[in-house]
Amino acid sequence: MSKPTAIFQRVVAVCATAALTATAWAAPATAVAVAVAPAPLQYVALGDSYAAGFGAAPTSDKCGRNGAAYPALLAREAHGGISVRNAACTGATTADVIRQASVLSRRTQLVTITAGANDLQLRQLLATCMNRLANAACQSDNLAVNRRLAEDLPRGLHRMLRAVTAAAPNARIVITGYPLPFAKSPKCPSVPLTLRVRARANHVVTRLNAAIAAAAARNKVRFVDVEPGFAAHGLCSRKPWLVGAEGMRDNRVLHPTATGQARGYLPAIAGSGLTDRA
Length: 278
Prior knowledge:
By secondary structure, the chain is α/β, with parallel strands linked by helices. It has one domain (40-270): 3-Layer(aba) Sandwich (Rossmann fold), CATH 3.40.50. It has helices spanning 3-15, 49-52, 70-77, 94-100, 117-120, 122-129, 135-167, 195-218, 227-230, 258-270; strands spanning 19-24, 31-36, 41-47, 82-86, 110-114, 172-176, 222-224. The chain has a five-stranded parallel beta sheet, sandwiched between helices. A two-stranded antiparallel ribbon has the order 1-2. Helix 8 (195-218) links the parallel strand 6 (172-176) and strand 7 (222-224). The longest helix has 33 residues, at 135-167. The two termini are 26 Å apart. Mean pLDDT is 85; it is low at 14-30.
C-alpha cells in the first residue's frame, strides 16, 4: 500500500460517517451487524494553474484542468473514498479564489488551495527578464513585485482564507506553497537567464511561500511546503519537474510536469497530517 493511499484511508475514516445497522433474525438474542459503506469524502480544490494541473497533461478544459493535477491524483489514491470537484483555473488570483469559493458548502469536508503567485505576476516578470535587452523593464517589474509582496499579497491571502473558511465551516482546509523555480546551479544553458536573475526569482518565491505560511497560521489552516520535494528538481537540474523555456510560447513555463504533480505536490499534501488538527 502506498503512503498516499494509507493516509487517505485514514482521512476518509475520520471525515466520513460510517453506520452499523443491527438486524434481528429468528432468535431474539441473535443480531448481525451490517456495515454500511461510508459516503465519499466531499473534497473541493481551489486555486490557480498549479492546482488545475495546467502543463502536466494535454486538455481541452478552458481552465487547464486535467487528470494529472494533484487534486485528481489525491482522489484516485482514495479508490472511491473521495469525491473531488476541481474549481481551480489558470490565471486565478486570490480574488478569483474567493469567487471559486461559491462552490463550497457546509457539506464540504476537505479544501485544498494553491494561489498567490498570480497576484505577483511572476510569469510576466520572468518573461521580461529573459529579454537581455529589457534590463530596465526587468528591474522595474522586480520593484513592483516587491511592493505586492509587502502590501497587496498578505491582504489578498487573508481575505481569501477568511472567505473559504466561512464558506466551508466544517472542512479541513489546506493551502500549499510553490516550488522554487531554479535549482542551485552556476550554469543553466536551457534557460536564458543569468545566475543573478535566477537567484532573485527563487528569493521572490521563498518570500511568497513565507507570506502564504503566515496567512495560513493567522487563519488557522494548514500550510503545505512543497519546496523540499522539488529541491533537486527545479529548472537547471538534471531531472526538472517543471516545464522549462520550451513552454514560453504557450505559457506552460515553470508549471509542474506530470511528474512534478505526482512526486512533488501529491506526497507533500498527502503526508501533511490531514487527520490532525490544524
